[in-house]
Prior knowledge:
Elements: H1 3-29, H2 37-53, H3 58-81, H4 87-106, E1 110-112, H5 119-127, H6 131-153, H7 156-166, H8 168-173, H9 178-204, E2 206-208, H10 215-230, H11 235-258, H12 266-293
Antiparallel strand pairs: 1-2
Helix pairs in contact: 1-6, 1-9, 1-10, 1-11, 2-3, 2-4, 2-9, 3-4, 3-9, 6-11, 7-9, 10-11, 10-12, 11-12
Amino acid sequence: MSLGFVLASIEQGMLYGIMALGVYMTFRILNYADLSVDGSLPLGAAVSARLIIAGINPIISVFAAVAAGALAGGMTGFLNTRLKITGLLSGILTMSSLYSINLRIMGRSNIPLLQQPTVFGLAADVFGGSRAVSFLLLGIIELGVMLFMYCFLRTQVGFALRASGDNPQMVRSLGVNTDNMKLLGLVISNAIVSLSGALAGQYMGFADVGMGIGTVVAGLASVIIGEVLVGKRGIGFAIVGVAVGSIVYRLCISLALSYGFAASDLKLMTALLVIIALSAPNIKRAVFAVAVRE
């Protein structure tokens, strides 16, 4: 295995680790199955790419993508908390709507960015054109998102958000509006996912309407793998675990593809990784029980 291969996999792990952090916000903090992230990721790429080809600074386009993702999360939250549509169906409706919205934004199904300025190109112009620049930039951005989540979830509002996911009945009895907490969590989650989409589009050199397919499964795989490797010893360890899980997930996928699996097997490999990660604790307990009996 070459060093370049490993670094490329780690870069992808950091890139999509940002997305996994957004998925963690809904699936673990809010205990909410938000499927709208499948549309939020290409939404971020679409908004960013469209603004870049219109001559807007790529850094500004990233912030615009984050705002668009926040609106998408707000749409899901509105459907669920105000119109009382179930959480799963709210996510599906938003995801379906975003497919058409993304096509409207881009004007076509794919926008190439190979000859356009990107945040990675700007960083390379300032600090030099080496491969390490993209690596460090992704690391800094992911670390910034991790620090934001850690600090936010330890504030009074953050504790209310976490409690709303753990025990909504108790939180409501204390006077906290759980609907507002859910809405806030969905806004933050989808904003983070759209940030990942904007960076992914600029990193890969294109925005495609179908690039978000499987986002939920990949994000959930990263979360579960991280929990197995790092554990659940607090919010800080959980956030670090998501980042580590994303890198391990991408390394496993890259290894499988390099050893003969076809690209069409990607979804199957993702499902197998999730199954293995979910069953690992039960397998460990069963092995330990057998060892004790012997």
